[in-house]
Amino acid sequence: MAKENRKYKDSVFCDLYYSDETAEQNLLELYNGLFGTNLQDTALISKVRLEDVLFKDMKNDVAFTVEGRRIILSEHQSTVNPNMPVRMLMYIAREYEKLLPVEARYSEQQYPLMTPSFIVFYNGEKDLPSEYVLKLSDAFAEGSIQNGFLELEVRVININTDKNHVLLEKCNTLRQYSEFVEKTRRFGGDENKLEMAVKECIQDGVLSDYLMRNGKEVVNMLMAEYSYEEDLAVHCREAETKGEIKIYYSEMGLSIPEISKKLSIPQKNVEKILKENGFFKK
């Protein structure tokens, strides 16, 4: 079966669970593992591609519906992101907007909505619990609101093998994916080393069928993922620096030379950031 035509790069995780010829079966196994069901018919699975491209044309999301009754929105992440609840809120709002007919929005009859589940599969190197929950209300400026309260919870599952999450026992593909990631990390981000990692995985029976069919493409995806993560880290550092400069300048009243010395940044760079972000005092 040919790959779906895509204008963006999939991560390996997303390729396994969205684009590969085994994707529907992998999703069915994942769903059964998550919810304790025993569904066998992949026809019950409908993939839903989220339109949002978060950064540098890289796709890390996997969204699908089951039996037309439940919608699962998930992301794979190798970094910690506490803003996932609000991201998921925006995602589900888009999905409901597409699913809910215009006329039904004003009907006197209640329109049935698919029950949503929000999940993050984490396999980064920072030590995190086996599982925990992120709540939208944790970000509210004034805490929980009693009337008209809005809440959204995201289940974060650490799929690193050393955490021994029960989901890895139920989902063979997910467990092998985690082993695959650990092997590629050990070999490093160099293309030749990644090719060696892929060969070792095939020899060890880790995603062997998938890698034999897609070995070269997998290496390309891994290279793109490493580039993505490096660029994202740079952007995060830049955002943190802008935030620090704003605090030092606008709230603490430090001068540009003082900020430059404190953050080890040239004065002209500090001044540029202040001007570009509207922090500069007239």
Protein model, in words:
47% of the residues lie in helices and 14% in strands. With 282 residues, it is of the alpha/beta class. It has a domain at 9-187. It has a 6-stranded mixed β-sheet, sandwiched between helices. A two-stranded parallel sheet has the order 1-3. Residues 1-8 and 53-58 have low confidence and may be disordered.
Question: Layout of helices and strands, plus pairs?
Answer:
Blueprint: E1 9-10, H1 12-19, H2 23-35, E2 45-47, E3 58-59, E4 61-66, E5 70-77, H3 84-99, E6 115-122, E7 131-135, E8 153-158, H4 166-170, H5 172-187, H6 191-203, H7 208-251, H8 256-263, H9 267-276
Parallel strand pairs: 1-3, 5-6, 6-8
Antiparallel strand pairs: 2-4, 4-5, 7-8
Helix pairs in contact: 1-2, 5-6, 6-7, 8-9
Poorly predicted regions: 1-8, 53-58
- Rounded Rg: 22 Å
Give the spatial strand order of the biggest sheet: 2-4-5-6-8-7
List SSEs in N-to-C order. Answer: EHHEEEEHEEEHHHHHH
Distance between termini? 62 Å
According to DSSP, the number of beta strands is 8
Number of helices: 9
- Rounded average pLDDT: 83
Structural class: alpha/beta
Tertiary shape: globular
Portion in strands: 5-15%
- Main sheet makeup: 6 strands, mixed
Share of helix, binned: 40-55%
